[in-house]
Amino acid sequence: MFGYISINKAEMKFKDFDLYHSFYCGLCRRLKEKYGKRGQMTLSYDMTFLLVLLTALYEPETEDGMCKCIAHPFEKHPTRINEFTDYVADMNLLLSYYKCEDDWQDEKKHLKHLYAGLLKSENEKVRVRYEEKVKRIVDCLDEIFIHEKQGEENIDKMAGYFGEIMGQIFMCREDEWKQSMYKIGFYLGKFIYLMDAYEDIEEDIRKNNYNPFKNTYQEETFETDCRQILTMMMAECSREFEKLPIIEYVDILRNVLYSGVWTRYEQVRAKRIKEK
What is the pTM of this model? Predict the structure, then answer.
């Protein structure tokens, strides 16, 4: 369920893209420092959004730096690192581990099972560090697994479990903003779950895998209904975001919420129309 929280580069200013990428590079650097190359391989733009959001909301002291990496070995890139970089790195590794486990349980992807094994010891460290939060996340993952095996048809219920997971991850602190941060994560998580199901529907039908849209896929209103549901999720998410007292990086964050999250949807929809 990675790859849905992205920027719309075509509509982003060059300076904003450089800023966003510096947080991405900073997250990459901390993943390597904390967990080695195996942790660095879990890097995704999805969690970069959370890092920028937390930085914009709490305005921590942020260290500017420069570094090289495997992807860009000959040129140094700017990095931005602060106290939330470590938190997001931990959550990124946690989600990556359980995504690998999910792929193994659902489709018996041996490489993912092997990679999960490589991440297991580091994942245990994260579980100790955030014991209560991780317990809630794991409980929701267990509920998703159980209800998928039972063929649960309630789409909102299934999306809600992943919404709870993302809500727990976004709610970084117990303070006056925790409810808004939880709701941003919750509705974004529901969007991700539904978007993942929307993208995979044909493949899941072909492979007889679980998908909450199976019973409605052949209906004439399928595309319209999916767009409406996804729009409702992002409307609620964006409404909560606008309640936060954010000034810095606000253009970057709005690019993701109002435009970036829809780029994958448009790609999937265009491909589906072309194939049909």
Answer: 0.90
Model confidence at 168: pLDDT above 80? yes
Least confident of 126-135, 188-197, 203-212: 126-135
- Its CATH class, for the domain covering 85-275, is mainly alpha
Q: How far apart are CA 248 and CA 50, in angstroms?
A: 14
